Amino acid sequence: MKKIIALATLLAVGAGRLFAQEPLNFNVQLDKPTGKISPHMWGVFFEDINLGADGGIYAELVKNRSFEFDNPWMGWKKLQEVPEGSMLIVNDNKRKGNARSLKINKPDAIAMGLQNEGFRGMGVRQGESYVFSLLYKQLTPGLSLSVELLDENDKLIGKSSLSLDAGETGWQSAEVKFTAAETTAKAKLNVWIEGTGVAELDMLSLFPTATWKNRPKGLRKDMVQILADMKPGFIRFPGGCIVEGRDLANRFQWKKTVGPIEQRELIINRWNTEFKNRLTPDYFQTFGLGFYEYFLLAEDIGAEAVPILNCGMACQFNTGEVVPMEELDTYIQDALDLIEFANGDSQTAWGKLRAEMGHPAPFNLKMLGVGNENWGPQYVERLAAFKKVLKEKHPEIAIIASSGTDPEGDRFAFLDERLRGMDIDIIDEHYYRPPSWFLSGAARYDDYDRNGSKIFAGEYASHTTRPNGPGRSTWEAALSEAAFLTGLERNGDVVQMASYAPLFGHVDGWQWSPDLIWVDNLQVYGTPSYQVQKLYALNKGTDIIPITRNQANVTGQDSVYASTVYDEQTKELIIKFINYNDKPVDASIDITSKRKISGAATKIVLANADLHIANSLEEPLAIQPKQQTATYKGKTIKESFPPYSFTVIKLPVK
């Protein structure tokens, strides 16, 4: 018995030593920077998935406003039986991009009505103004419209009316403004047709007046604001797999997304039927959010625009169609014309269109992606053709090329070798992997060629399970990403850009999860992963500073990760430290420098002992950064880092 007690005592002492260990020692070489951090290091990836554009950031509340969906009545219903032929869908192919309209033939004064359900309802707020607008063509004058907003219980919460001007015979526009009396996420719109007469109606639309920057028919301001709060260095658009399309006919064609809104040609969204468990037959792209609006959004929030264009290949997970090489010139010309649209003066054809749309000054495009998640020799062949022409005509534009769908394997190895052999400017690497992959990959870029192609971590996300539903972007996933991002930051001379993907998810209309930001028709919140990337983006610094433990990079030894940068503008040393343990970690960080570390430091902590916790609409800030002032003595930082935590320490340098 005494031997058993003695053994138990020995084990207890050993355990005590384990959890009361001496501080882990680290060294920061402040005066020996190893490289520069790209000014657009941390950005966002935008794709119209999960109702990200239509039904999301594009603030239009009416679904199928121009009757152009495959089923022209989708989203609409007649409010009562009407005589045969009194409501007809007319298809006039002479109308560019918008052939269909609704013809009303109303011989008497009995009211006829339509109702639109919106995108899983319409989000409206009490006291805010909304603008109903439409295009119409009078054939026999005498009609007027009455518009109503109803809540989810059919209670009237807003109303107005307008007459259709009888003075013109061609297409005209009209609008009326009214105020919502209540707040609801599930409103619907009634349009009553009154009087007698014959007319064609099109582009029946409802927008809040309170859009981003109050632009008429603009973007949802809370969704833009949460992006602006990150201060992203770039916005990659429009995707994503919608660049490729299920087939080439369904690919994203930027020229069809600019010019007058009513002339932009709608197509089915390729995420419409991609996932059998999340069928979304009402998902289309109206392109009210088109390339002009993407460029404008990037400019608004101080981000570089990073457009991605189709390279003559459809999604290889779907049809895998390719355009013949002898027909690739059209695709290459699209790239040349896009550069002209973005950067050309108003005397050029596409620069003139940009100016006519309201932006005479160039957008100053610097980067262009050729292809999205494409692979194989067929991609390399097409990329080479793009590169030859682009580098001859626009050597100032950096080309971004795809390394395929995975961060390792035969496809990746093939492309990595070929792209580097082509001297491609930037290679786009994607990784959707479990937390263990991110934790073990913090040293991934430590041995990359410093003089070769740069890296764009174009799509990353730690997946605990997928699809796992709204709000299940967990702290476990986010903390593993924080650990991995130390490796991106430490190798900022190689990794030029990084963005989580996808960006937005609508709780009532998602196809893919997890996502960085979740919304419903009225609310928006950032996931723990959003909070992590936001902390990196707001504290990116300008210079890479080495931090080591036992003269080695801190890449997961004892489940601890760290990176350090210096910010030339704020004169701060910024330490990022991840403790991926269920116990606190005591650390002593020695700063080697001739400069002084003085003044109050700032400490920002994201932490939770429960790895499975997540933010939600009900608790949008369950995981949020907590900031405080900290005082340290001299050039040694002694700190206890909480269990499962991501800490940012900002030290004034003189």
Q: Could you outline the blueprint of secondary structure elements for this entry?
A:
Layout: H1 2-19, E1 24-29, E2 35-36, E3 44-45, E4 76-78, E5 87-91, E6 100-106, E7 112-116, E8 122-124, E9 129-140, E10 143-150, E11 156-163, E12 171-179, E13 184-195, E14 197-208, H2 221-228, E15 234-237, E16 267-268, E17 284-285, H3 291-300, E18 304-309, H4 329-343, H5 349-356, E19 367-370, H6 377-393, E20 398-402, H7 410-421, E21 426-433, H8 435-440, E22 454-462, H9 475-490, E23 495-500, E24 504-506, E25 517-519, E26 524-526, H10 528-538, E27 543-545, E28 547-549, E29 552-553, E30 560-567, E31 572-579, E32 585-592, E33 601-607, E34 626-630, E35 636-641, E36 645-652
Parallel strand pairs: 1-32, 3-15, 15-18, 18-19, 19-20, 20-21, 21-22, 22-23, 24-25
Antiparallel strand pairs: 1-28, 2-27, 4-7, 5-6, 6-14, 7-13, 8-13, 9-12, 9-14, 10-11, 10-13, 16-17, 25-26, 27-30, 28-29, 30-31, 31-36, 32-35, 33-34, 33-36
Describe it for me?
It is an enzyme of class 3 (hydrolase). This protein has 654 residues and is of the alpha+beta class. The protein folds into 3 domains: 18-34 and 545-652, Immunoglobulin-like (Sandwich), CATH 2.60.40.1180; 44-58 and 212-540, TIM Barrel, CATH 3.20.20; 76-208, Galactose-binding domain-like (Jelly Rolls), CATH 2.60.120.260. The strands form 7 sheets. It has an 8-stranded parallel sheet. Strands 2-27-30-31-36-33-34 form a 7-stranded antiparallel sheet, covered by helices on one side. Strand 25 and strand 26 form a beta hairpin. Helix 4 crosses helix 5 (349-356) and helix 9 (475-490) runs parallel beside helix 10. The longest helix is centred in the N-terminal third of the chain and has 18 residues, at 2-19. Mean pLDDT is 94; it is low at 1-19.
